[in-house]
Structures are given as structure tokens and as C-alpha cells.
Amino acid sequence: MNSRLQTRISIVFLMGLFCWTTQVTAQQTASVATRQTPASEEEQWQKIDSRPTPQWWRDAKFGIFIHWGPYSVPSFSKVGTYSEWYWCDLVNSKRSSHCEVKEFHDRVYGEDFAYSDFVPQFRCELFNPDQWAKSFEESGAKYVVLTSKHHDGYCLWPSKQSDQSWGRPWCSTNSGPGRDLVGELTNAVRKTDVKMGLYYSLYEWYNPSYLSGVDRFVDEHLVPQFKDMVNRYEPAIIFTDGEWDYPAATWKSAEMLTWLFDESPCKDQVVINDRWGKGDRHKHGGYYTTEYGAGLPNGENPWEENRGMAHSFGYSRTERFEDYNSSETLVLMLVDIVSRGGNFLLDIGPTADGRIPPLMEERLSDIGDWLDVNGEAIYGTITHHTTCQWSEGKQVELGKGNYRVKYDVVNLMKGNRSGLARKEVVFTRKENTLYAICALLPEDELVLKGVKASNDATVSMLGVGELQWKQFGDDVVITMPKLNPSKMPCQHAWTFKISEIE
Q1: pLDDT value, residue 280
Q2: CA–CA separation, 36 vs 464, rounded Å?
Q3: Is the pLDDT of residue 106 over 80?
Q4: Is beta strand 271-272 parallel, antiparallel or unpaired with respect to 143-149?
Q5: Which whole-number Å values give the CA distances from 321 to 42, 291, 358, in the listed order?
Q6: 101 closest CA partner among 119, 84, 68, 78
Q7: CATH number of the domain at 43-374, out of 3.20.20.80, 3.40.190.10, 3.90.640.10, 3.40.1550.10?
Q8: Where does the secretion signal sit in this chain (predicted)?
Q9: Helix (H, G, I), strand (E, B), or coil: what is residue 19?
Q10: pLDDT digits (tens, 9 = 90+) for 253-273
Q11: pLDDT in tens, 128-160
């Protein structure tokens, strides 16, 4: 090869090498430029909080909560408290229920009987997930939230993190019933039109990993367990709890939620609550929660009132008939809560053998019967500019507050409060269609004050049919139908529909 040709080849090679190097450098530079710096926690929360709550949840209005676990074996609580806190009440002498729970436990099971000894008795041998799902569907509920894991840390699904951090079998698949309770109920519920959600406790009272150091617990247990639960079951709702010991940064809540909304298999439909860190309720997350209260005033942020049928979430054998809210009370709670823009999550506490107690089944059935007639005025509705119509007297809303406050909805809507007004009517809407729901029917005429119906509007009573009416100034006056008890379309509350208002 002559020197001139060799020189040309060298020049071509060097030019090619230069172009390749330039291209690689440009690609690396572009990659660095486009690579996003990890968002700060504040930025993550801004993105999380700006995510709209999926419309399906806003339209659903009514859901079923389920508290079920080893605490369902003793099913004991001081009346007025929570049976699912049995273990904590048993060992924590500072708890107000400690004396009652310890006396019961020592007398019935013995001082040497540990909480973990309840697990073999949590057999769920009568659990029929399809029957449960049928009851939920017939109740009119549009979503279910099952305790996948409560504060005792016992998982109702196969969680390797649980077994590892507890150092023993602590899941329903390898102890107790030997069944994937979350999976079985999820599959059954998804055969219906009801959405399936999961409750998940961030903290675990006596988990050795949690007690030895929360940071390690979060990294090795909480975060991977949370992701495993979501990946397995793709819940439509995640109701977290047990957040109050540490701020959200300690729990890495923003990190988990960023993953949930960006990468998880249920990222588009999943709904979350607001219990993600100490002091963050009604500040961060998704819908706001109240517990054994009356919910919140109508506002921009979606909210949900959750409570048991009696005083406890978990089944408690100490609760008697008079401790349970009547079907009328529960229907009126649903009506009043929805009229103010909220959802109602009503809890059941199944037994350790896997049954929904008959009294709870009856309450669900009664609510379903009412919704069969009146569901049009509940599902998919929005608030009217006036949520209710008051009678004469001082207007006082009951149950202001977020936790354990009085909510005597029957008196609120039916009267018997000396000198105080009652809610004669509560309103819901769908576009220009107005629904007026009454807990007491007037004998002759129902006057809806400040309501202007269109000239071609029709007025009807759901379950009955069209009624006579007239516009009298600013009010709609409806002539009551003649109904004897055998022809009443439903019990507890009645709905009047104005097809078009101005």
C-alpha cells in the first residue's frame, strides 16, 4: 500500500471516528438534559393533590367497609369502642378499654393466651365470597373496601414481607383459614358491577421490625408490601390508616403514591383517601374522611363519612340490638350525606367463621330496597345550590367535627328538637333535574320553596308516578298522592322529581 492511499484511509477513519464520537456525545448530552431530577416531596404532593378523584367514585355515593381478622375471634369490646383494637386494648394499660378487655381475656382465655393464639381459631370455614358479593350488590353499594391488613399486621393475602418481619406465619394463606381472603373476595366482587377496594394500615402495633426502627420497616416491609398488594389485586380504592405516628415523609407516602399513579396497573381508576401522614387529613391525598361523624359541609373536595352499624367496626358480641342504628337511620344518613356532596361508607364486621351477621345483612337489604326505588336520586348526582329546606325554627346542623361526634339524623330530618328547625327536604340534582327527598310526608301539599320549574316540566314521586303540581310565585307546590300503607313505594324517605328547573 503506497503512502498516499494509507494517508487517505487514515483520514477517512479519523473523520468517521470523530462523527461517531460527536454523535455519542450529543446523545449523552441529550439524555442528561432530558433526565428529570427526582421531584422533591413538596412537588410530588402538588402533583398528587392536583389529581382529580376519578368520576366513578364521585358517582358511586354508597360503599361497604369490612373489618375482618383475628380480632373477629374474641369479637369483644367495651361498648362504644372498637373490637378490632382488642390486642392494643389488652396490652396497653393506658387505653381506656384496657381493664374491661384484660378482665375478659384473662377470664375466658387465660393470662398466658397470646393474641397470636387466636389465629388458629380464625378459620373462616363458612366464608362464601359469592354470597357476600351478592349481598353487597343487592344492598345498592357501588364499592367495597376490605381490610387487607389492620393495625395488628395480620394479612388476608400471602405477603412474604409479613412473614419475614414477624418471624412467623402471619398471613391468612399459611395460618388460620389457609385461604387468600383478599383474592377470593376480589374475584367474587368483580363478577358484579361493584368496585373492589382495600384498606391498608401503614403502621403495625407490635411488628418487631416496626418497633426496632421505622425507617427500616418502611424500606423493607411497608413499601414493598404495599406495591405487592397493588400489583396482585389492582384495587379501585386504597383506604390507608394508622398514619398518625409519623409524618408522610417517614412513611414515604409521596413516593408510594407517585408510583401508584404513574406506574401501577390500576393507576387510572384508583381512588385514595387522605390518611398518609401525621396531621395530613383534609390536606393531602384524595378524598377527605370523617369517622363516626356527620361528614363535611358541601365543598370542592370530595369526602366520605365512614362508620359501623353500631359502635364498632369489627364484630363485637357485646353490642346489643339497641346499639345498632336502625334501617331508617342508615337510609337517612345516606340521604343527608349525599345531599351535602359526600359518600357514605358503611361497615360490616363478619364473624370469625366467615358469616355476615344476620342483623347486618338485614340492614344492607333494607338499604338496597330503598335504593331500588330511589337510587336515581342518589347515584351520579351533584349538590343543589341549596342542600336542604328548613322548617321554622333555629337552624342547627348536628354532628360538626371529623371524629366521633353526635349525628342524630332522625331528629334532624323528622323533628322533635324543641325550638329547632328540621330539614323538611334535602336536595340532589342531575343537571336541570331536581330531586327533593322527605323523611316526613305532608298530608296535602309539599311546598318546595325557591324552586322554579320549567313550563313543560313534569313532577313525579319515585315509585308512584306523575303528580299534579303548580308554580306559585317562587315555589313549586305538589299535590300529595293518596296512598295507603300497602301502596307506599318504600319506607323511611320519599323522593319527588322535578324533571326540569330553571
Answers
A1: 95
A2: 61
A3: yes
A4: unpaired
A5: 48, 21, 12
A6: 78
A7: 3.20.20.80
A8: 1-26
A9: helix
A10: 999 999 999 999 999 999 999
A11: 999 999 999 999 999 999 999 999 999 999 999
pLDDT band at 419 (very low <50, low <70, confident <90, very high): confident
- Residue type at position 307: R
Candidates 282, 360, 268; CA nearest to 57 is 268
pLDDT of 11 strictly over 50: no
pLDDT of residue 13 exceeding 70 = no
As given in the structure block, the three cell numbers for residue 270 are 384508583
CA atoms within 13 A on the CB side of 136: 32
Question: Rounded CA gap, 180 and 157, in Å?
Answer: 5
Give pLDDT tens digits for 157-172: 999 999 999 999 999 9
Instruction: State how far the alpha carbon of 163 is from the alpha carbons of 67, 173, 460, in Å.
Output: 21, 11, 59
Contact 351/69 with Cβ under 8 angstroms? no
- Band of residue 36 on the pLDDT scale cut at 50, 70, 90: low
Can you give the pTM of this predicted structure? 0.92
Instruction: Report, at the CATH architecture level, how domain 388-498 is classified.
Output: Sandwich (2.60)
In percent, the amount of the chain with pLDDT more than 70 equals 92
* Gyration radius from the chain CA atoms: 28
Distances (CA, A) of 4 to 16, 17, 35: 19, 20, 46
For 242-331, strand residue ranges (E) read 271-272, 288-291, 303-308
Q: Where are the domains of the chain?
A: 43-374, 388-498
| Angle value at C-alpha 197, between 192 and 199, nearest 5 degrees | 150
Instruction: Give strand pairing partners of 64.
Output: 144, 346
Helix axes 358-374, 327-339, angle to 10 degrees: 50
| 341 contacts: CB under 8 Å, gap ≥ 6 | 296, 298, 299, 302, 303, 382, 383, 387
CA distance 409 to 394: 16
What's the rounded mean pLDDT across residues 456-479?
98
